[in-house]
Amino acid sequence: MEIVVKGMVQVAGTTYRIVRIERGGYDVVRVLDDVVVGHFRSGPQVEVSASTIDVTLLREIARVAIQGAKTTWVGRSFLG
Fold it and tell me: CA 45, CA 59: separation in Å to the nearest integer?
């Protein structure tokens, strides 16, 4: 599958790039230093995996990305 930049989101004053890396899977890249800060999967439940930031912040980034239509819709809900 082709890697596709889905858009940008801003959370807590920082801009993140949302990159689809697989079906339902997205990397979150901090634009300031071009570092992957975590990954999330969309589906019936949203799953997050933080690498260099707090999981709560990554969950908020995923929520903003999903609500801002920066992901492909696959019938998911976000309980967070």
Answer: 12
pTM of the model as a whole: 0.84
Q: Rg for the chain (alpha carbons), in Å? A: 11
User: For residue 16, which of 46, 59, 45, 78 has the smallest C-alpha distance?
Assistant: 59
CA distance 66 to 68: 5
Distance CA 43, CA 25 (A): 9
Residues 32 and 14: their CA atoms lie apart, in Å, by: 8
Residue ranges covered by each domain of the chain = 4-67
- Note the pLDDT tens digit of each residue in 22-32: 988 999 999 99
